[in-house]
Structure formats: structure tokens, C-alpha cells
């Protein structure tokens, strides 16, 4: 489903990696590992199509993602290290707006249900600027609850989460994989995700 | 297609409504700059009437510039811009929505208050009407062209000043025809020709500018 | 396919650098020849203008500088279009190398315009349509240079600058016509700088000087692009080899 060949990444004057490739099929999880500055985030940005690789190609369902464009992006869900939530809006408004901008149908009930799952019940109508850092992260993660698009790309999803939330998120990713979804993620901490195939890619 | 434009514009308007201070300060900037001119050049009605179109238009250009740096910067800072770029629609439509919202909160209020300021400059009723019409027709072009500059300078050092360097020369045609419309009315020539050229410029820039801005955003996001 | 494309992209600066080095002396020499010929025709052969006296001879600098300032902007936009369409690295470097020369030409055109205006119309500056457009062109050059200077990443600077050039080149005719219209509407000083009934020798002088400026611009742009290449590619093997060898 997701294939990458011979990727090379140059940032400024540094060549971060070259000749990198991988294949990922339905139900599989790819862990990207490496120390800080090894190019994990750059590789993620290549996979989501924001950063064109110096050489090489990434294909989704056999078609280069550059060419697939919108049909690739319609299958993609990206969670970056920034929360992508608006401080002035409430968690509920944020969730609904994000879904609408991504071209998805999300009913208010589903959104409320998602917020309840991330432990924000009762905070739906409070502007996000009054929430703590951890709670803001949960608003961002709530997007994943009802997310049914097949490819998830997650940048350090477990950072700043407490133990219970880590378990909950691991379960969410695992359910996504069992539905036949794919996931690519970077993480520092090793989290046990019960899933079929877990691949690892180490950037050095 | 219109859905996404409406969704983006609606979200931006909602955000702007929760930060009304920004809209109000740009509006007061406009009022203050315009009011400074009589103090600088003297209260003689003939002179003021002659200067009014130019003064009001230059002040309008500067007031629009004020809010431009934040057009994409806020979304860039909190990661929303990436999400918008990854949404399964052409990015140009997203930018169109943002440009419309920008005009509604920065251009439209200027047009509404301009007649009041025009009275300070002793403009006739006809001239006031044409002034309002010209600002209504011309400011969307300013928002569109400004979006290109805002996208090009996204995340750069001294972005605000750089933005004015890039955008103000491109504003010149709008300034010429906007002020020209009022001028022509004052001198009895009729401003219709100017107004239709302004409308043409606005149509062209609303059509093309968002796509150029979208290309600039993609460069900035790499 | 991709391999050849890469080879092209990577080889380009490495092969262009020595090529530019060889070409520079030729362009410089041609510029000097045209310059001497042009100045000779302009200063000694062309007749004294019966209205304007000797002062008019500044047009042999003024007019070629104006031509070149507009031409260079078009060339930069052309490089920008190539760069954005084919993602070639040389294009962005060429556009950046040309910009200071273009700005210099625009400035020279304004400066000589003022020098000419003082004895002719008794004032340094008139809001003539051409001078005003030239001033705006200078603003566009400054905007481009400021933008590329503000972006640290060279690749992003090339692309963003290229996009600005394309937006600018679409706007230049609109700006020019609106300024012209504004000028006729206000019926200000509609002074025609390049006045009718020019002696044939004057035209020849201007053409020769325009060739001189053109060749000079190429030579200077090539020198500048060589510097840009060395700076940007200093981590590559071919630059290291050049620097180690101590040659030019």
C-alpha cells in the first residue's frame, strides 16, 4: 500500500539520509527511530507530501503521492507535534471545524463522544486557552477517535501523556490496525501496541 | 468546492469575532491616520477636498496591511496550516476562504467608516458615495494581493516590514483607480470608468491571487 | 529517467562554473569595445541638439539603462519560470545574480533622468509616467532582493523569489498602464524623454551603449553566479577541489 524507494533528504547543507526505502501493507505499523536530528520528522513530512524528497519516490496504492494529490490526502490523517487547535475555540468547535476542513462528516454527538473518551467531558464548551497543555494535547488526539481514514501518520503521539492515556492511545492505534489501517509513527518511548506486524526503521 | 471556501471563511470569521480588538484597532488606525492629515496640512476646505481621495486611499492601504502578517502566521504557529494543506481540497480554495474572511473583517469596515471620514474633508454626497463604492470594490483586491505577500513572508524575520515592501508596489494600480474614481467625481467627470476597472482588478485578483498564495504556502511549508 | 534528471541537476553548477569562468573575459571585452564605440559616437559624432544643447548626451546612459532595467526583470522572470517548472537549481542562482544589476540599471536610469531633468525642465524630478514606472520597478527589484535575503534556506529563497518575480511580471504591465493613465488624467508634466526626430547617429550611439550595458550585465551576472555557486555548494566535492587547488 505505502512504498518508498531510494529516498534522500537534504536539509540546508546536511544530508540527513539517502537510499532509504520501506514497504507497508494494510494492518502494519512502522516505527521510525533515531536520535534527535536524524531526520524522523523530515521523513514524516515526506510521507505526507509536504516535503519533496531530493531523490526517490513515495507511492500510495501504487501511485506516486505527488501525482495522486487529493486522492492520497483523502486517505491520510496526520498528527504533528503541534496540536493544530485554535485557542479561541472550544474543544467541540475545534473538533467539528477540523473535521469540516478535512472534508469529513462528523456529527456533534460523535464529537462529544470522542471528547468524552479523551477525558474532556464537561470541558466541551470552555475555550481551549483555558485548558492545560495535557488537555490541549487530548483535544488534538480526540480527532483520532472517529478517524476512519486508512493511513495514520503520527509524530511523537505519546509525548506528554500520562500512563492511562498512553494505554488508551495504544489501544486506539491497535484498533485502527486491526481494521486494516496503516500507521507510521515516530516515538522515543517504546509502547506496546498489540498489532499484527510491526516494522522498524532506524535512521542514523 | 464552495463548501470548503465557506468552511474556512466561517472558521476565520468566528475566530475574528472572538478577537474583536484586532478589527477595532485596524479601524482606529485608519481613522487616526486620516485625521492626522488636516493637522499636518491645515484646515483649508479646498485643499482638503483635493487631497481627500488620496489620503483616504493611502490610509486604507496601510490599514489593510496591518492585519496581513497574521493572515497565515497564526495557523502556521499552531499547526493548523499543515492540516489545511493536507486537506483533500486544492489549497487555493482554502486561501480563497481566508481572503474572503480577511476582507470582511478588514476591508468592509473601512468602506463603512470612510464616508464619515470623507465628511471631515468636506466631500460632496456624490463623492462620498463613490468613495464608499470604490473602497468596497477595491479592498478585495488588496486582500488577495496581500495574501501572496503574507504567504511569501510566512515565518521570516522582519516579516511585517518585508511584507509591505513586497505588497505596496503591487497595490499601486488599486490606489490609482480608487483615488481616481473619487477625483473624477469631484471634478465632475464621473467615476464609472474607474469603478469598473477597480471591479475588474478585484475579479482578477480574487481569481488568481489565492492560487499564487497557495503555491507560496507550499514553498513555506517544505 | 530519474537518474538522468539527477545527474543534470547535480552536474549543472559544477559544469556551469568553469564555463562561466571562460565566458566572462569575452563578455567583458565585448562590453568594453561596444562601450568605447558607443561613447565615441555619442560624445563626438552625434550632433549637438539644437534645443537641448550638449546636455542631452546623458541619454546615451539614460536610455540604455532604462531598457536594460526592464529587460533584466523579464530575464529574471524567465529564469524564475524555468526554475519553478523544472526545479533546476541554476535558474534561481541566475535570477539572484541578475537582481543587483537590474536594480543598478533602474537606479542609474532614475539618477540620469534627474540629472537630465534639472537643466532641461529646471527640476530634478517630475512625476512623468516613465520615471514613475521606473521608480516602481526599482521598488520591485528591492522587494525581490529583500525577500531572497530574508530567507536562510537557499532553495526556499529561490522558489519564493521566483514566485514573486512571476507575480511581479504579471503586474508590471498593469502598473505601467495605470501609471500612464494616471499621468494623462492629471495632465502633469507629460514630457517625452526620447524626443522625436532623432538623428540617426544618436540612435546608433544609444544602440551601441545598450549593447555595452547588455554585455556588461551578462559578465557581471556570471561573476556573481560563480560566487553564489561557491557559497551554496561549498560542501560538495567539486567546490572543495577548486578551493583546494587554489585556482579561480
Written overview of the protein:
- The complex is a heterotrimer of chains A (204), B (222) and C (248).
- By secondary structure, chain A is α/β, with parallel strands linked by helices.
- Chain A is 32% helix and 27% strand.
- Chain A contains seven helices and nine strands, in the order E-E-E-H-E-E-H-H-E-H-H-H-E-H-E-E.
- In chain A, strand 4 (55-60) and strand 5 (63-64) form a beta hairpin.
- In chain A, helix 4 (91-101) packs across helix 6 (133-145).
- Chain B has one domain (2-221).
- Chain B is elongated, with a radius of gyration of 18 Å.
- In chain B, 57% of the residues are buried.
- In chain C, helix 1 runs antiparallel to helix 6 (200-232), helix 3 runs parallel beside helix 5 (154-186) and helix 3 (89-121) packs antiparallel against helix 6 (200-232).
- Chain C is flat, with a radius of gyration of 21 Å.
- The two termini of chain C are 34 Å apart.
- Chain A binds chain B through residues 45, 48-52, 70-71, 73-74, 76, 78, 80-89, 93, 97-98, 100-103, 127, and chain B through 4, 7-8, 11, 14-15, 18-19, 77-80, 82-90, 94, 218, 221-222.
Structural features:
heterotrimer; B: 222 residues; mainly alpha; 9 helices; 86% helix; 0% strand; C: 248 residues; 81% helix; flat
Q: Order of helices and strands of chain B, N to C?
A: HHHHHHHHH
Gyration radius of chain B, rounded:
18 Å
Distance linking N and C termini of chain B:
25 Å
Major β-sheet annotation of chain B? none
- Overall pLDDT level of chain B: 91
Rg of chain C over CA atoms, rounded to whole Å, is 21 Å
Output the structural class of chain C.
Answer: mainly alpha
**Annotation field: number of helices of chain B:** 9
- Mean pLDDT, all residues of chain C: 84
How far apart lie the N and C ends of chain C? 34 Å
Order of helices and strands of chain C: HHHHHHH
Form type of chain C: flat
Beta content of chain B comes to: under 5%
Low-pLDDT segments, ≥5 res of chain C: none
Q: Quaternary state, please?
A: heterotrimer
Global morphology of chain B: elongated
Amino acid at each position: 500500500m505505502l512504498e518508498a524507494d531510494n529516498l534522500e533528504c537534504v536539509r540546508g547543507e546536511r544530508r540527513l539520509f539517502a537510499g532509504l526505502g520501506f514497504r507497508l501493507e494494510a494492518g502494519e505499523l512502522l516505527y521510525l527511530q533515531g536520535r534527535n536530528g536524524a531526520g524522523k520528522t523530515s521523513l514524516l513530512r515526506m510521507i505526507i507530501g509536504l516535503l519533496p524528497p531530493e531523490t526517490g519516490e513515495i507511492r500510495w496504492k501504487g501511485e506516486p503521492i505527488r501525482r495522486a494529490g487529493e486522492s492520497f490526502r483523502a486517505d491520510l490523517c496526520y498528527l504533528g507535534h503541534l496540536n493544530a487547535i485554535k485557542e479561541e475555540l472550544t474543544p467541540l468547535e475545534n473538533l467539528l471545524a477540523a473535521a469540516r476542513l478535512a472534508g469529513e462528516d462528523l456529527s456533534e454527538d460523535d464529537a462529544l463522544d470522542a471528547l468524552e473518551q479523551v477525558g474532556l467531558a464537561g470541558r466541551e464548551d470552555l475555550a481551549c486557552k483555558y485548558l492545560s497543555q495535557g488537555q490541549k494535547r487530548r483535544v488534538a488526539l480526540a480527532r483520532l477517535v472517529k478517524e476512519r481514514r486508512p493511513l495514520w501518520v503520527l509524530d511523537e503521539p505519546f509525548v506528554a501523556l500520562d500512563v492511562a492515556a498512553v494505554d488508551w492511545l495504544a489501544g486506539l492505534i491497535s484498533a485502527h490496525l486491526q481494521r486494516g489501517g496503516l500507521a507510521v509513527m515516530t516515538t522515543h518511548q517504546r509502547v506496546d501496541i498489540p498489532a499484527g506486524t510491526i516494522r522498524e526503521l532506524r535512521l542514523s | 468546492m464552495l463548501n470548503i471556501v465557506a468552511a474556512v471563511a466561517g472558521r476565520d470569521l468566528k475566530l475574528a469575532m472572538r478577537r474583536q480588538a484586532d478589527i477595532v484597532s485596524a479601524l482606529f488606525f485608519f481613522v487616526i491616520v486620516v485625521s492626522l492629515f488636516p493637522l499636518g496640512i491645515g484646515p483649508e476646505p479646498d485643499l482638503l477636498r483635493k487631497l481627500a481621495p488620496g489620503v483616504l486611499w493611502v490610509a486604507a492601504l496601510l490599514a489593510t496591511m496591518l492585519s496581513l502578517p497574521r493572515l497565515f502566521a497564526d495557523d502556521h504557529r499552531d499547526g493548523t496550516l499543515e492540516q489545511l494543506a493536507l486537506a483533500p481540497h486544492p489549497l487555493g480554495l482554502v486561501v480563497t476562504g481566508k481572503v474572503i474572511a480577511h476582507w470582511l473583517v478588514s476591508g468592509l469596515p473601512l468602506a463603512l467608516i470612510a464616508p464619515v471620514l470623507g465628511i471631515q474633508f468636506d466631500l460632496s454626497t456624490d463623492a462620498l458615495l463613490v468613495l464608499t463604492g470604490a473602497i468596497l470594490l477595491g479592498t478585495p483586491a488588496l486582500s488577495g494581493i496581500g495574501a501572496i505577500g503574507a504567504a511569501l513572508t510566512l515565518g521570516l524575520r522582519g516579516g511585517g516590514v518585508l511584507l509591505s515592501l513586497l505588497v505596496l508596489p503591487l497595490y499601486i494600480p488599486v490606489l490609482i483607480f480608487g483615488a481616481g474614481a473619487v477625483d473624477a467625481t469631484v471634478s465632475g467627470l464621473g467615476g464609472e470608468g474607474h469603478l469598473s476597472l477597480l471591479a475588474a482588478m478585484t475579479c482578477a485578483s480574487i481569481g488568481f491571487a489565492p492560487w499564487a498564495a497557495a503555491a507560496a504556502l507550499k514553498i513555506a511549508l517544505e | 529517467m530519474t537518474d538522468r534528471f539527477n545527474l543534470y541537476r547535480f552536474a549543472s553548477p559544477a559544469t556551469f562554473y568553469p564555463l562561466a569562468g571562460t565566458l566572462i573575459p569575452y563578455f567583458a571585452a565585448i562590453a568594453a569595445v561596444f562601450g568605447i564605440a558607443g561613447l565615441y559616437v555619442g560624445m563626438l559624432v552625434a550632433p549637438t541638439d539644437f534645443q537641448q544643447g550638449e546636455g542631452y548626451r546623458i541619454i546615451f546612459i539614460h536610455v540604455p539603462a532604462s531598457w536594460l532595467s526592464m529587460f533584466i526583470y523579464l530575464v529574471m522572470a524567465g529564469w524564475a519560470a524555468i526554475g519553478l517548472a523544472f526545479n533546476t537549481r541554476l535558474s534561481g542562482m541566475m535570477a539572484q545574480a541578475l537582481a543587483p544589476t537590474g536594480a543598478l540599471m533602474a537606479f542609474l536610469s532614475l539618477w540620469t533622468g534627474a540629472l537630465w531633468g534639472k537643466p532641461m525642465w529646471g527640476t530634478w524630478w517630475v512625476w512623468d509616467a516613465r520615471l514613475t514606472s521606473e521608480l516602481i520597478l526599482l521598488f520591485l527589484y528591492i522587494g525581490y532582493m529583500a525577500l531572497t535575503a530574508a530567507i536562510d534556506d537557499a532553495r526556499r529563497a529561490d522558489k519564493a523569489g521566483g514566485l514573486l518575480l512571476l507575480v511581479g511580471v504579471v503586474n508590471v504591465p498593469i502598473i505601467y498602464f495605470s501609471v500612464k493613465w494616471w499621468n494623462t488624467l492629471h495632465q502633469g508634466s507629460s514630457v517625452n524623454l526620447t524626443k522625436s526626430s532623432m538623428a540617426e547617429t544618436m540612435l546608433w550611439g544609444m544602440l551601441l551603449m545598450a549593447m555595452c550595458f547588455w554585455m556588461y550585465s551578462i559578465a557581471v551576472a556570471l561573476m556573481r553566479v560563480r560566487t553564489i555557486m561557491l557559497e551554496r555548494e561549498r560542501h560538495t566535492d567539486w567546490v572543495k577541489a577548486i578551493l583546494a587547488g587554489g585556482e579561480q
